[in-house]
Specification:
Length: 727
């Protein structure tokens, strides 16, 4: 059957179809703007503002959701969930925007469901009066909504840096945003300090983030300075707990912002089930209307503080908050530090204030113009009445007044609309008394509008008032990272000597030294299996294992079960969950990841890589692309920290002496290294062996001044079949 289709370039298809979607998600959905809101937040709050919910009684949430659909073309549940996160009842924000009544769930609970919108009630919280201040004074731009039936603001004229006061997180296409929240008082003080001096040390008045869930922030100055300057970095938050001596239990009342009470309970249950935590007899979630409370019942004799130090390391009771201060500036995503965000907000707020001042000047000037026309009427009220009275046609009233008093059309219309009862001297004098005051006000407004210094002074005054009216004490306590006790895993891991046996068939035995000495039996191995290496080490060390798929598997030796020589040991493919058909080639125990690895490839190249390249801060279990895979691996060796001597053999019967100092150290794991033995006539490297075990007496014969080299043919007495061996 003939198919009719038009070929398309994939790049053009992506550009025409995918890019508009990606840009829409970035600009119109996931990334907040300088006012601190995403479009969904802004549309919801503006709808509530237009509904008159800044004052008065609450209304049903369903009513707000329905009205918001005029601006936000999403489903009712999506809009309601947006509202939930902004409410006082949800406790996700330091300064909630929505005053709520009913069940809105909790930020610290993943499973606590919020009630349906028909059961809950909302209105705008008091702080929203600062969000919508001067909203009707042309302070921000307005655009058509999605169906052009009404107008909506592009930004809200927030009178304080809301972008820093409340947290914001979002995932767009190819980028994400994670903005921490800061204390309102501190943010206002830092903004004022910045306006006075752009190079002021903001950390003096705003030392670190603050979160609605409280907790303890472990302060590291270098890391915090990095966040303040670049907008990227991370810090750790700890839970707050107390020990109830009477009931022998630990009560946790504050947890990190980035976790939930269910996640903590699940991890505790997992550790208890695995036998890694034996001091806890029961875990209970006792959270209620008064707040969060997680109770851990302890077994007799348990040191509560020592246990919590371990739990901070092993559970989400201590969690990291990763910062990525990505926001939209003029519809372009930009990652800014705290100083940069404050600078952008000040510019934004100055523009809002200037537009508001210009609006006030325009309105007052218009009023002054009318009053000046009214003042001229004061000269002869009877004349004004006479003109109106003797004008035969209504359409000529305005022109006749304009000619009679030398006023313009706007002034004349204003005079003509005055009620007859108000055409008295007293009324007109009262109205015209404001002329001089208006002139002074307009002059002051124009003076302020023309001076950035005065505009900043006005913003600073507003910030001081907001800080005093809405500021709250810091919820998250700051503790220097060096002042708290950190868990050291090695302190609770048994310290004893042992030997790691590794076999050709990928079995591993961890045999304690005591068991090895007392054992009088030979090793039990699978039929045809042999031991490839035996490394004496310690239970506190790590074990690094290289596979034939360029992967490295890592594990703590203490996590391996103790074995015996009379047992076959652990089968590594099962233990490490390796890929089908994958085999471990080499194992090395290490404590500090010191020394170097040497990789010899069939093409004659060798790579020397520091073992430290395989050390990771995150305790990853598997590293891919662990060594070069462009040529078949002949052998890998652990050199330690000293250079060594080897003999390199080719399949053509040639040998070459190598001192590893000739091979430069590379920090890239996948480096192919340098050419050591020149490949000629299809020759390949077949083996590499330490000088002390190669059995060659005349080593000098195989030495060369430089590498790469072809090597020399083995002498008859050095051929493997001519050498005396013990086997």
């Amino acid at each position: 059957m003939e198919q009719n289709f038009t070929p398309q370039r994939i790049t053009d298809t992506l550009k025409d179809n995918y890019m508009p979607y990606a840009m829409s998600v970035i600009i119109s959905r996931a990334i907040p703007e300088i006012d601190g809101f995403k479009p969904s937040h802004r549309k919801l709050l503006y709808t509530m503002y237009k509904m008159g919910l800044l004052s008065g009684a609450r209304t049903k949430s369903a009513n707000v959701v329905g009205q918001t659909m005029r601006l936000n073309p999403h489903g009712d549940q999506a809009i309601y969930e947006t509202m939930v996160r902004l409410t006082r009842g949800h406790e996700a924000l330091l300064h909630p925007f929505v005053d709520s009544k009913g069940n809105f769930g909790k930020r610290y609970s993943r499973d606590m469901a919020f009630a349906a919108s028909r059961y809950t009630e909302v209105k705008l919280d008091g702080i929203c009066s600062e969000i919508f201040a001067d909203m009707d004074k042309n302070t921000v731009e307005f655009v058509d909504n999605y169906d052009a039936t009404m107008k909506e603001p592009t930004l809200l004229p927030t009178a304080f840096p809301n972008i820093l006061v409340n947290p914001n997180e979002g995932i767009a296409v190819g980028m994400a945003s994670q903005i921490a929240s800061f204390n309102l008082k501190e943010v206002c003080a830092a903004t004022i300090a910045y306006m006075n001096d752009e190079f002021a040390d903001l950390s003096e008045v705003m030392p670190a983030p603050d979160f609605s869930t409280g907790g303890i922030l472990l302060y590291n100055k270098d890391e915090m300075d990095k966040i303040y300057e670049s907008g990227r970095g991370s810090f750790k938050l700890r839970s707050v707990y107390s020990y109830d001596k009477k009931n022998n239990c630990i009560e946790i009342t504050e947890i990190p912002y980035s976790t939930s009470i269910e996640a903590i309970i699940e991890k505790l249950a997992e550790l208890i089930k695995a036998g890694k935590i034996r001091e806890i007899s029961d875990v209970r979630d006792e959270s209620d209307k008064s707040g969060l409370k997680l109770t851990l019942d302890l077994k007799r004799g348990t040191d509560a503080d020592a246990l919590m130090t371990r739990l901070f390391k092993m559970t989400p009771l201590e969690a990291s908050f990763g910062c990525n201060f990505n926001l939209l500036i003029h519809s372009r995503p930009v990652v800014l530090g705290v100083r940069g965000i404050i600078a952008e907000w000040v510019n934004f707020r100055m523009e809002c204030v200037k537009r508001g001042l210009a609006y006030d000047i325009e309105q007052k000037s218009a009023k002054l113009h009318l009053l000046e026309g009214l003042k001229k009427i004061l000269l002869d009220i009877d004349k004004a009445i006479s003109i109106i009275r003797h004008t035969e046609q209504e359409a000529m009233v305005i022109p006749n007044l304009m000619r009679g008093f030398e006023i313009d059309q706007i002034q004349a219309e204003y005079v003509a609309d005055i009620k007859l009862r108000n055409l008295n001297r007293e009324y007109i004098l009262k109205r015209t008394d404001d002329i001089e005051n208006l002139k002074d006000e307009i002059a002051n407004l124009q003076k302020t509008l023309g001076s950035n210094r005065l505009v900043k002074k006005l913003i600073a005054k507003q910030l001081e008032g907001i800080s005093k009216k809405y500021g709250i004490e810091r919820k998250t306590k700051i503790v220097d990272d060096t002042e708290v006790e950190h868990f050291n895993a090695k302190e609770v891991v048994a310290d004893y000597a042992l030997t790691i046996f590794f076999t050709k068939e990928n079995y591993l035995k961890k045999v304690p030294a005591i068991s090895l000495r007392s054992s009088g039996t030979e090793h039990v191995l699978k039929e045809g299996d042999v031991i490839l290496s035996a490394n004496e080490t310690n239970n506190r060390f790590d074990l690094v294992m290289f596979s034939d798929r360029q992967n490295v598997y890592k594990t703590r030796i203490c996590d391996l079960p103790d074995g015996k020589v009379s047992k076959m040991g652990e089968y590594l493919p099962n233990l490490l969950q390796m890929e089908p058909g994958e085999k471990i080639l080499f194992v090395i125990p290490t404590e500090k990841y010191e020394g170097n690895m040497l990789f010899s490839f069939e093409n004659g190249k060798m790579a020397k890589v520091p073992l430290a390249a395989y050390a990771t801060k995150t305790n990853r279990k598997k590293l891919t692309n662990a060594y070069y895979g462009g040529s078949k691996l002949v052998k890998m060796l652990y050199l330690g920290e000293e250079e060594k001597e080897f003999i390199v053999y080719s399949n053509l019967g040639k040998a070459l002496y190598l001192h590893t100092s000739k091979v430069p150290l590379k920090t890239t794991k996948t480096t192919q290294g340098v050419q050591v033995m020149i490949s000629k006539k299809g020759s390949v490297v077949q083996n590499i062996e330490p000088v002390e075990t190669c059995g060659i007496e005349d080593i000098a014969y195989y030495k060369t001044k430089n590498i790469p080299a072809m090597g020399n043919f083995l002498k008859d007495e050095d051929l493997p079949e001519k050498q005396i061996t013990l086997f």
